[in-house]
Design brief:
- This protein has about 210 residues and is of the alpha+beta class.
- It folds into two domains: about 15-105, Kinase associated domain 1, KA1 (TATA-Binding Protein); about 115-200.
- It is built from four helices and eight strands, in the order βαββββαβαββα.
- The chain has helices at about 25-35, 85-100, 105-140, 165-195, and strands at about 15-20, 40, 50-55, 60-65, 70-80, 100-105, 140, 150.
- The protein has a six-stranded antiparallel β-sheet with strand order 2-3-4-5-1-6. A two-stranded antiparallel ribbon has the order 7-8.
- The radius of gyration is 25 Å and the shape is elongated.
- The termini are far apart.
- The relative contact order is 0.13.
C-alpha cells in the first residue's frame, strides 16, 4: 500500500506592514475603525503596547507586532477560523493598503524578519545619536568643572567661570554639529519607518553597504 499523502496545513494568519515606526495611537485607531462597522469591539484588557485584540460575540481576533521601522504585524483568529474572521482580516488589509502598507506571505515574512532585526538595531543607534545631540542643545558644558549651564548663561553654574568669546565660538560650533546630527538622525529614522532599504540610507549613519531593507 502506498503512503498516505501529506496533509495540507492551512495557515490562518495574515502579515501586514505599515510605513510607520511602531504601533502607536494613530495605527491603533486605523485598525480599530476598520473593524467597528463589522461589530468588532476592542478588548483593552487583552491589548498591550505590542498587540491588539477584538471580540465579536464568541469570536476573537488578535494583531501582534513582529517588527518596527516599519511596523510589521501578524493577524490571526482566536480559535477556529470562520467567515467572520476572514471578513475582519479583509477589512484590516484594506485599511493598511489604503494607507501605504502592504501584505506579506509566510515566505516573504521568513525572508524579512532578519532584515527587520537589522532595521531595529539601526533605529536604536539613530535614537541614541538623536538623544545625545539633543542633550547638547539643552546646555553648555564647562571645560573647567564639567557642569552644565543654560545656553544663555554668561557664567558656569558650577564654578562661576565666565565664558569667553572663545568659549562662545566653541559652543556655537558644537551647536552647529549637534543640529546637523539631529537632522541626519531624524532623516534616517523617517526612512526606516517608511521602509527605505538600508543601503539607500546615507544620512551620516553607520549602515555602510548593508544590503537589507
Amino acid at each position: 500500500m502506498g503512503a498516505k499523502p501529506a496533509r495540507t496545513v492551512r495557515r490562518h494568519h495574515t502579515h501586514l506592514l505599515l510605513p510607520q515606526a511602531s504601533l502607536g495611537d494613530p495605527q491603533r485607531v486605523l485598525l480599530d475603525e476598520s473593524l467597528k462597522p463589522a461589530g468588532w469591539t476592542a478588548d483593552p484588557d487583552q491589548s498591550s503596547s505590542m498587540s491588539l485584540q477584538w471580540r465579536r460575540g464568541r469570536d476573537g481576533l488578535r494583531v501582534q507586532t513582529l517588527g518596527w521601522f516599519p511596523l510589521l504585524l501578524t493577524v490571526g483568529p482566536l480559535g477556529r477560523v470562520t467567515s467572520v474572521h476572514r471578513d475582519a482580516v479583509a477589512r484590516l488589509t484594506a485599511a493598511v493598503t489604503a494607507n501605504g502598507g502592504r501584505t506579506f506571505t509566510d515566505r516573504q515574512l521568513a525572508d524579512y524578519l532578519p532584515q527587520a532585526q537589522l532595521r531595529w538595531q539601526r533605529a536604536l543607534t539613530e535614537r541614541r545619536r538623536l538623544a545625545e545631540a539633543e542633550r547638547v542643545l539643552e546646555g553648555r558644558r564647562c571645560h573647567r568643572c564639567g557642569a552644565w549651564s543654560e545656553p544663555e548663561m554668561t557664567h558656569c553654574t558650577g564654578c562661576r567661570l565666565r565664558f569667553t568669546q572663545a568659549d562662545d565660538a566653541e559652543w556655537n560650533a558644537v551647536v552647529a554639529q549637534a543640529s546637523t546630527t539631529i537632522d541626519a538622525a531624524q532623516a534616517v529614522l523617517a526612512d526606516l519607518a517608511r521602509g527605505v532599504r538600508l543601503e539607500r540610507i546615507d544620512h551620516g549613519g553607520a549602515s555602510g553597504g548593508v544590503r537589507h531593507g
